[in-house]
# Entry
Amino acid sequence: MGREMRLLGPAGRLVYSHAMTKRGIITLLVLVAIAIAVVLVLTLPGLLKSEEPEPAPVYVIAIDAGHGGRDPGANVDDIMEKDINLAIAQKLQVLVDAEPNLTAKMTRTLDIFVSLEERIRIATEAGATIYVSVQANSFVTEEASGVETIVSDTRPLDDDAWILAELLQNAVSEATGARDRGARSQESYMHRAEMPAAMVEVGYLTNPAERSLLVDPAYQDTIAAGLLAGIKQFIGYRYPSTTPSE
Ligand SMILES: [Zn+2]
# Structure
């Protein structure tokens, strides 16, 4: 019935003795093959993965629609700032989410009150790279018009928030053709944000001509496109090696 195998240890002592049948050898070979296969299956994905390039990072863009719920913001002829802000912010959300390396995190998607602390907390917990608040302006006279962008006055001049603000300001002014009022600092809840944060006042509800534009979905699209352009420029500037070229 097959050969006798005797294995002797260093001292000449018999350590293993077994009558290996043909079936036994085949079984052993199958077990060894299975063991090799298991090791390959467990290690190959890791080996292959290390040879592939790192997946391109996806940057979280916190988009804040200013005001909401019991806080309407500016209210001119029953046109409420909170509604204009949300409409533009949601258009921007669609554009941001369509970008392969960007994803939007909204601080609100409904007409609800969200505290200023909560807005920053939402952005922070989402790991947002930047914070962009969409607002509409108002003034005591009708003449004031145009776009301006606000940075927290706690940000030093070499802070990236200023770069973000300038890029957003330029892009929205250029897209809309509205008066460019520039970027400036003021006391703001955005001092709580650790990421670069800017608030874009996209136009004046108190200016009759600009108010009729701000309620127009096509003009809101133009503003959103301008905001996206500024966001993409900032990401391209801040993370040049990880941003796909176009
Ligand atoms: Zn506002």
